[in-house]
Structure formats: C-alpha cells, structure tokens
Amino acid sequence: MSILEVRQAVFSYPGARPVLDGLTLSLEEGTIAAILGPNGAGKSTLLDICLGWKQPDRGAVFMAGKPLSDWSRGERGRMISLVPQRENVRFDFTVTEYVLLGRAPHLRPLEAPGRRDRAIAREALIAAGIAGLADRSVTTLSGGEYQLMLIARSLAQQPSLLLLDEPASQLDPGHQLRVMRLLKKLSRKGITVLLTSHSPHTAAFVADTIHLLKAGRFRFSGRPREALTERNLRAVYGVPFKVGWNRGIFSCTWDGVL
Amino acid sequence: MRGASASALLLLVLLLVLTAAGSVFLGRYPAPGFVSAGTLAHDPIAQRLVLSIRLPRIVMGILLGFSLAAAGTVFQMIFANPLVEPGFLGVSQGAAFGAASTIVALAPSPAVVETGALLFALAGLALSWLLARLIRYGGWILRLVLAGIAVSALFSAGIGLVKLAADPRNQLPEITFWLLGGLWGVAWRDVLFVAPPVIVGLAVVTLLRWKLNVLSLDDRVAHALGSAPGRERALLLFAATMATAAAVSVSGLIGWAGLMVPHAARRVFGTDASRSLPASLLMGAIYILLCDDLARTVLPAEIPLGILTAVIGACAFIALMIARRTERGG
Amino acid sequence: MRRILLIVSVIAGVWVHSAFAAPGPYSVTDTLGRSVSFQRIPERIVIAGRATLLLVDAVYLFPGIAQRVVGVGGTDQGLGDFLPLIDRGAGAKLRFSNSVGPEQLAAVRPDLVILKSYLKAQLGDSLEKIGIPVLYLDLESPEKFYADVQTLGRLFQQPERAHFIQDWYRSRVDAVARATAAAEKPSVLVVQYNARDGTNAFTVPPAGWIQTVTTETAGGVAVWKDAGPGDGWKKVGLEQLSAWNPRYVFVISYGKPSGPIAEDIRNSGSLAGAIAGFPSDFYSWDQADTRWILGLEWMAVTLHPELFPGLDMRGEVREFFTRLYGIDESTLSREILPRLEDAFARR
Fold first, then answer.
1. Is C121's CB within 8 Å of B109's CB?
2. Of B84, B144, B263, C227, which one's alpha carbon is 20 to 30 angstroms from that of B280?
3. CB C116 within 8 A of CB B169
C-alpha cells in the first residue's frame, strides 16, 4: 500500500529554473527509500514537498491515498515526521524536554505533555540509544549525539513515515552505523523511511529502493544493485566511479588518478 | 540541567503574597517605613490611604509585573533572542507617543492619556506587522525586527516634536514623568481599565505556554510537528502585546523588567516555558512591587519607577553576563 | 440707668464679639469651579507641587497667614530664597520638592493643600481620596489673578484685604492703560536668553502668557505673538529676531541677574534696538508672580517715560513690599533694593 505518493511535481524557486521537473515518487509502506543526488539537486526541496511545507507549482502529493492538503495539521503531524539535517538551537532545553516536543501533534491545542507522553519520550531515548543523555542540556551535545536526539524526537512523534534529511552527513562512521541500524529496525516495525543522502554507501547499506535524482527528475530507480552502477553514478555525479560489491557490501571510490 | 521543581513555583506564589502584603503597610505615612496595625485601625486617613492609594497601586504593580515578564518570555522565545523586550515592535514608543500627544493636544485627564497610549501602542504593533510584510528579504524574524526598529524610530521622532510644542511648566514635566515610568496617581479606575486586556492576554499566553517551546524551533520543524508557526506565533505575540500595551498605558515606559526577569526565570526554572513562563510572571510581579516600594518610600519625592527598574535591572544584567555559566542565546 | 447701660454694654459686647468671633462653616470656590467647605480657617496649610513660588507670594499677600502655613515647596528661583523675608518662621517650615508624593504630604497632617490647577490629576485627586481638602489656584493672567485673590480673601475671611489688593492692582493697571491708550506703540520683544548647553538660545514665551498682556497694556507691540503655536518657550534664531526688528528688547533671565546678560547681548552687537534686562529682585518681574504689576509699571515707564513723569519705580517697589508684604524698611534696603539698581538706573 502506498503511504506517500508524489505525482508529477514541478517546483521552482522564484526567478529560477525548476528544481523539480515532473517528479514522481511512490513509497511502499514499511520500506526504506533513499534519494541520492548531487548538491543542489533538489533533495531537500523534495522532502519539503513531502512534508507539506512547500507546495508544488504543478502536481500533487498524496498521503494514504488522500491529497495531503485534505489532511488536518494534526493528522499530518501524527503520520509524518522530519529529522532535519541541522537545527538552530537557541535555548538550552534538556534532551528530555526537547524530545518531548515531538509529542506536539498528539496533544490537544492547550494541552501539555502528561505522564504517558513522558513515558513515550523515555522509550524514544532508549530506542535511539541515548537514554543516558536525558538530563543533559542540548547545547552540550556532540554532533552525533545531537542527530540521535533529533531521531529520538521523531520517534516520540510515533509517525508512520519518517523523513530524514541527510542523516549521516554530520556523523562519524560509528554513529552512522548506529543510525542505519536504527532505521532498519524501524522499517521492520512497519515504519516507512525516506532519506536523502549524498553518500552512496549509506544508501546502499540501508535502502530497499534507491532513487537517483538529477535535473529535477529521477533518472534511475531500483534496488541498490541495479541502481548503483558505474554508469548511473557517473551520469548523476558527473565524475567516474569504481564500484564493487563484496559479499553484499557496496563500495565505491572515484576512478582514476587525482 | 534540571530546572527547579513545581514546589519552587509555589514558593514564588507565597513570596508574591508576602511582598504584596508587606507593601500595603509600607509608605511614608505617618512616617517613612511600616505603618502599625494599630494606627491603621484607628486613623481614618491611614485607612483611606491604604484603600485608595496603596492598594490600587499594588494591584497595578502586580498586573504590570505579570505583563512585562510574561511578554518578555514570549518575545524572547519566539524571536529566539535574549535581547528583545516586549515593547520593541513599536509598542513602547507608540505608547509614549500616544501619551505625549494626548497630554499636549487634549486636556491631560488620565483616562484620555491612557486611551491614547493604548491606541498608539497597538498602532505601533500593527504598523510593524504591516511593514514586515512589505520587506522583501530576510527571514520573518529579521523582517519583524527591522520593521520594529523603524516604527519605533518614527514614533521616537514624533515624541521629540511633541515635546517641542509642549508647555514646559506643566505639560513637559508630565510627559517626562510618563516617559520615565511610574505608578503614582494610580486609582482603582486605572486598575479596572487595565485588568481586562491584561487578564485576557495573560490567559492566552499562559494556556499556550508549552506550545511556546514548539514555536521557538525552526519554522519547518514546527510545521512538521503539526503547528502553523506563523499563525500561532502571531496569536501569542498579539496576546502578549495587548497585555503589555494596556499595562504600559497607565504606568508609562518601564524598561528592563521585560528583559531581565525572563532571563532570571530561565536560569532558575529551566528553559521549558511551561515552568519558566509562570515563574517569569511571579518574579516579574515581585520585582515591580519591590521597585515600586522603593520608589515611593525611600525619598519624600517620588522616584520614577522606570529609573529604578532600569538601574537595578542593568546591574543585574551585568552580574548575569559576568557570571561563569552563560546561557547560549541566539 | 446703670442697669440699662449694663444691659446695652452686654448686648454690645456680645454683638462685637460675634462680629470678630471665628466664623461658622463656610465654603470657597476655587479656580476650577470646585466648592471646598471649611469648618474654620485652616491652620495647617501646605503649599506644594510645582510653581509654588507663585502660590506662596499670592497667599502671603494676606497678613497673619504665615503661622497657618506649615509646609511649602520651592521658593528660590536661583537668586535666593524669598520666603524668610515674608515669613519669620521660614526656617522652621517643612520644605517639599517638586515631585512630592501624596503620602508625604499626608504625613504632615495638613487641613488644606493649595496647588496649581494643573496638578489636579497628578497630586490633587490622590490627596482628596485620602480626605485632605485641596484648593487650586491659577494666577496666570490678570483676570485669573483677581479671581484667585478673591478666593484667598474668602478662604482667610479677609474680604477687605482682598479688595484692597485688587484695587491696588486694578488702579495701577487702569492708570497705565489709560495713559498709553493713544500713544504710539513701539515694537517690543520679551525674550529669555540661555547660555547653557554650549549654544546661545533665545526663547520667547507663548502668546497666551502674562508677558503678552503686560507688554500690550504698557503700551508696546508684542512682536513675538506670531512666533507659532505651542504652549511653551519657543526657540527663535537671530534671523527671526532681526526680522522682527524690535525697538526694545527686554531680556529675561531666571536664576541669574539679567543685567550682565543684557550687557553681553548689547556688546555682541547681534541685536539692534534698546536692550535692557528685565528687573528681578528674587524673582523676575515678568512671570505670573505677584510682581507682575511691578513688571508692568517698569515696562510702561521704560517705553513711555514722558507719559509717566510721576512714576517713581523706587517708590513703587517700596510701596509694594511694605504695604503688600509688610516688609520693614531696613530689610527692604538691605535685601531688595540693591538687587534692583539696574531697574532704577534707566530712569
């Protein structure tokens, strides 16, 4: 069952060429999809459109078969969650307080989080593996801890669809692995995941489907083995690659001498 | 960092009650200091003094402290800036301009002056808002800040013009006293004038205090969490401003309370607005009451309240900045 | 026969006594039209707030009042404190600042507070709420002055004195007005000069103030009347002053002797016309203080000396302070006359 569908979306910023030019995407429930593409290809914009934060100039987004605009804010918030790449933190909330913010769509307008919400937030911290940071101030976290906290906040939101904007970009390889494992665990529980990345490695490791985005459209879509060929990567990134599959683990480097 | 618990909030409530009670007995009659219960029981002048002069002043001080501190918290969280004061969107200068104009142009009856101040305070906010929509660059925060600065500057210039036309024997001192801020001459009628907008505004802000946390996040994230950040922020800003404008129209410009008290509240109670906002409210009221007690007791003449809150507030600010652990502000 | 004499003298005594006895309750209407009632003449009067020197000088026109006044605001405009000259007990009186609060005044337990009319909202209302009677005076024009003198006369139960004062002023004003009615009126500029804050500033009073009335009555044309709207002193530049080109320039200085300032302006050559300092003993004679009558006479005799051959300013000053304030000759010669040599010098 398709949990999210983008049909022929066209989007351009004022006075610029279209960033998305007739893009179509369908997410199957419980799968992990990764979008790869060069910088400025429109990956973040695509996430904004999936989130309902930006409206496509043409085309539409459908959530569980209904147009996204037909869902109320609260319903959308309970279904879709975003883990941004970066966030401006201006106040020193505690990690727990910050994760609790994820409960917002489940609360009535004047309601504040209650005991059940706190329990859910605690579970989210445990699932993300950062239960020990519960009382720390968010301004004292390292980049990796911070990313895990953002994921915990999204987990507290209990979404059906999790959007992640370049989740691995700020992380060291150890933390990258932790995040990817967590995403796999979520997918097994039935949560759909859509992530963007400019790292073919992480995409290959975690995704069921990979979409290669270039010039506003998906050039190639498919399982990692099919999508991540030297020809495709060269077409998307514009540089030659050397690709290898070693016992099911993907690796690629640039081809040629510097 | 764990904030202080809910019982600490109760302690603040108790402190406020005690301060208010003490303020009732404090003054310059019959001598500088506390009036004894015996005197109060037997002296009709003392009784009338307490009922008609001190009590309305104390209630007004509490409402003022509530408004400035709560509004300060709201503004600082929404603008993610520890240096904003509730009046900076043209509200303070608008109120001052409104008061000055009515003092000079019409008979300076207090009700007229207050109405003029309130109208122009809200006009200042409206102008800032409209102007921000016309600005073409920068994020919405930057637009509002720029618009607020511009509108405040215009009103400030207007005040200068009004002062030039004012009669220096009675109108100019009145304007100056209004600009310096003070609660002298506050009557029950003023309290009744101010109470409804203050109570409504503060009710809105207090009920939505947890939402304030969500609204302090990036727009996109707030949206993802199911908020309509633009609309909800507008509602909170308007409610906070309404309370502030009403209080300020009677008391004149009182600075620093809206800046300092939210900082102190966050320091002690944590950033979570569901605690720091009520704490701000209570601390603000206590602060204003204490300053006003000084203003009317220390010297035979009235010290303008705004001067005291500025001096004490600035010193506290300096102390806060020098203190070892600094808050990471915007 | 003796018995009849006894009865008649008893009756006469009672009648005489009742005529001089303390009056019963009475009420007074002040400048704001408010009626204030009194059981007896107030014995603890406070004159406070702003512009108290105007109020004090008006109140002390009535003899025997000094001991009823327990506290006053400022009576020193910068040239010295005038109060000790009219009140022997000045040193024992309570002094208040301009922005005194109602509680502080209440602590003195006054039975009457006299205030300037514009302090009603700021101070008067609070006092009334506590139950302290307040009386408002205006004094800012001759007509208001006469009305306020009547009010004070009624307050102190001295109607004859009030009439005496009013006649004193009225007769002098009428004499001056009559004499100058047909005369050719020279242009006059009354200007304040402030050499503070670096820049030299000339300011003129608004058209509605007493300076305009006295100048015109004294037979001059008040050139500054069209200086623009507004209720306060207005800055004017040298260009405007030259454009007016007044024949006479009277320089006011509050708080400093005006003679040297007039001298400076004369020497600087920036203004044509005859430049003189407005006389001031403790207070300048231009403002709405009781001395306005002296200011009027001085202007009349300066502008039209030939119309007032018998007007001797020294004599007028002597009469003013001795008859209206009961100041004795030695104090007058010691404290007041030396400050006025400039004023007499033009004669």
1. yes
2. B144
3. no
Give per-residue burial for A78-110: e unless 16+ CB within 10 Å, then b.
bbbbbbbbebebbbbbbbbbbbbbbbbbbbeee
Q: What is the CATH number of domain C24-169?
A: 3.40.50.1980
Domain ranges, ordered by start, for chain B = 6-17+46-322
Half-sphere exposure of B92 (CA within 13 A, CB side): 24
Query: Which amino acid type is present at position A185?
Result: K
Asked if residues C291 and C167 have their Cβ atoms less than 8 Å apart, the reply is no
Query: Taking a C-beta distance cutoff of 8 angstroms, is the pair C85, C322 a contact?
Result: no
Provide the token pair at C72: 């006053």
Predicted local confidence at residue B328, as pLDDT: 47
CA distance A147 to A87: 10
Look at residue B223 in the predicted model and tell me its pLDDT: 94
Q: Hey, are the CB atoms on B220 and A74 less than 8 Å from each other?
A: no
The runs of H, that is alpha helices, within chain A are 43-51, 73-79, 95-100, 115-128, 143-156, 173-188, 200-206, 224-227, 230-237
Measured between beta carbons, the chain A residues lying within 8 angstroms of B216 are 90-91
- Given this model, what pLDDT does residue B41 score? 84
Please choose, from the candidates B261, B251, B270, B316, the residue with its C-alpha nearest in 3D space to the C-alpha of residue B75.
Answer: B261
Q: Percent of chain B, pLDDT > 70?
A: 95
N residues, chain C: 347
Q: State the CATH number of the domain containing residue A186.
A: 3.40.50.300
Class of the C184-345 domain? alpha beta
d(CA B305, CA B299): 13
**What's the confidence (pLDDT) of residue B5?**
78
Mean per-residue pLDDT of chain B: 87
DSSP structural state of residue C81: B
C neighbours by CB contacts (3+ pairs under 8 Å) = B
Task: Give the model's pLDDT for residue B163.
Answer: 85
The full set of domain ranges for chain C reads 24-169, 184-345
Report yes or no on whether pTM surpasses 0.95: no
Chain A CB contacts of B1 below 8 Å: 92, 94, 135-137
In tens, the pLDDT along A55-87 reads 999 999 999 888 998 999 999 999 999 999 888
Longest Cα–Cα distance of chain C, Å, equals 88
Q: Is B166 on the interface with C (CB under 8 A)?
A: yes
- What CATH code would you report for B6-17+46-322? 1.10.3470.10
pLDDT of residue B329 exceeding 50, the answer is no
Q: Which of C99, C107, C129 sits opposite B29 (nearest CB)?
A: C107
For residue C301 the two structure tokens come to 């005799």
Q: How many domains does chain A have?
A: 1
Cβ of C50 within 8 Å of Cβ of B168? The answer is no
pLDDT tens digits along B32-58? 888 888 888 888 888 898 999 899 999
Query: Which pLDDT belongs to residue C345?
Result: 66
DSSP state of B50: I
Which residue range is the domain that position A126 belongs to? 2-254
Cβ–Cβ under 8 Å, residues A176 and A12: no
Contact B220 A93 (CB under 8 A): no
Residues (pLDDT < 70) of chain C are: 9-10, 12-23, 195-200, 229-231, 345-347
Residues 6+ apart with CB under 8 A from A39: A198
CA distances from B206 to B69, B236, C114 (A): 12, 10, 47
pLDDT of residue B118 exceeding 90, the answer is: no
Judged by DSSP in three states, A248 sits in coil
Q: What is the mean pLDDT of each run of 10 residues along chain A (258 residues)?
A: 88 87 90 89 89 91 90 92 86 92 92 92 92 91 88 94 89 86 91 90 90 88 89 86 85 78
User: CA of B27: which chain C residue's CA is closest?
Assistant: C103
Same fold, C24-169 and C184-345: yes
